[in-house]
From TrEMBL:
Cellular location(s): Membrane
Keywords: Membrane, Transmembrane, Transmembrane helix
Organism of origin: Salmo trutta (Brown trout)
Official protein name in the record: Solute carrier family 22 member 16
An example molecular function term from Gene Ontology annotations: transmembrane transporter activity
Topological relation to the membrane, as annotated: Multi-pass membrane protein
Region annotation (Disordered) ranges: 546-569
GO cellular component terms, A-Z: membrane
TM region(s), chain numbering: 20-42, 182-201, 207-228, 240-260, 266-284, 362-383, 395-412, 424-442, 448-471, 483-506, 512-531
Sequence ranges assigned to domain Major facilitator superfamily (MFS) profile in this UniProt record: 108-536
Extent of the signal sequence: none
Amino acid sequence: MSVERIFDEFGHFKRFQACLYFAAVFQAIACGIHYLASVFLVERPNFVCAPPGNITDVLYGNHTGASLEEVLPFFKPANGPMVVRTAVGQQWELSTCQRAQRMNPTDFTYEQVVNRTTEKCDENYHYVYDHSEVYQSIVTDWDLVCDREWLAKLCQPTFMTGVLVGALVFGDIADRVGRRRILMITSLCQFVFGVSVAFTGNYYLFMVIRFLLAMVSSGYLVVVFVYVTEFTGNKVRTWTSMHVHAAFAAGIMMVAITGYLVRTWWIYQIILSTCTSPFLFFCWKFPETPFYLMAKGRLQETQVLLDSIACFNGLEPGRLRAEDLLEPKEALLEKEVAMGRAQPVEPERKLSILDLFGTWRMAWRTVTVWAVWFIGSLGYYVFSLGSINLGGNQYINLFLAGAVEFPSYLIGCYAMDRVGRKRTCAPALLLAGTACVLIIVVPNDNEVLVIILSMTGKFAIAIAFGLIYLYTCELYPTIIRSLAVGSGSMMCRVGSIVAPFCVYLADIWQYLPQLIVGILAFIIGVLTLLLPETLGEPLTSTMEEAEALGRKTSPDQGTKYPEEGVEMN
């Protein structure tokens, strides 16, 4: 099909496409919000095991006070316990997960005594939290510390498991029922589930609702990339696809700002979940994409859409007919069917994920693309989750981790339109690997240089992570494009599930996470150079056309030259 003719006739990014694009991308902010919201939902403040009775005096090093709340902001478990005295004269040494009662004390001093009995804190005891920085989080509400700390650590991996499931499920469904329906359903569910999370009364319901929220957030993000790709011409497709990620980064920055201003987790969750709610008032006006309608043979609906685009862009309706988008053989068959001289073609069999491996050429392409998705996500979240531990203000660090993505997408877009997709992706992965190696050799006390290298790694990995969505769309045909992006996003979420556990490996060796990311980035960066270039190529509609990408054209067919630059017409 010559569906790309639509953009030659109506413009690659004129008024109709621009309105749809910015409306669809606006909701993508919510995806960035929900993906990183758990950073502050599970924030753990300073805490100690609560003693029995009322406290009258507190000692901790050189700090004294009449209550635990006065001294807790200065508490560091590695420097020893707090010593408290109760109203009945008992003295206790308080640590994070245990408390010890001094037996027959003579003086109230900070020096630890030998004669004491120790008790382990568990669900039968309460904890006292420092509310000076974090007033209320799910950790403080449900005591997710000590033996229950692993429940808090499961929050992000469980969410990303939901993202993985949603990417595969909704990517497949979008190829069957259309992009428009999925965008409407997932955006509505994002709002409903997002607000519902704030009213969960226990940990397990919280996790279930968050899992469902992850599924629909992933579903929207996967399908919106396909949606905007199929509504914009190849002259601007690089920019429109990459800047969906800019909306995601804006969501991360909103998480940092909201987390700084609101220190109560359920209010924080409600605010984040409602900030993109205006999208619900106009998403139902979205049309189906012409690529999907043509692939399903719905010519009448395609014609209505073409006339709407023409009117909205100030052009004459009817200047392009849906039948004109068919190949000559397809057009002739449509006429024969209309005149009763031929039978309609049997509907194509439903494609599955196995069709991504239909030939050796497509199988190798899929494996490499999935590897880029994996390392892009793994590196992205290792750098992001690690940003709040770089020193200094954690809110500023997370804000910078989002802000650094904006220049990466601008430079990435420029490079993709000048040197090509794979020649941008491969060097970006190699740069990310180099940054990881340099972080390992930098002295620990040089925090400024560590932050710079970490942001450089995030910058580079964001380029590869950003372009792989568009690259995947261009490497696969219309009939399986959403499934390709969905399955790639599935591998991406495998990386995001692994990322938190990779960060935990720092307990074994401080730089083990960077070493893992660096090695994988180098290997996959080299493999990326074997993929075909898609710069300037029209979107393919069949598996045969997709498989032919990158093959040299014969002399009698002429030589193909990729288009350069961006033209807004």
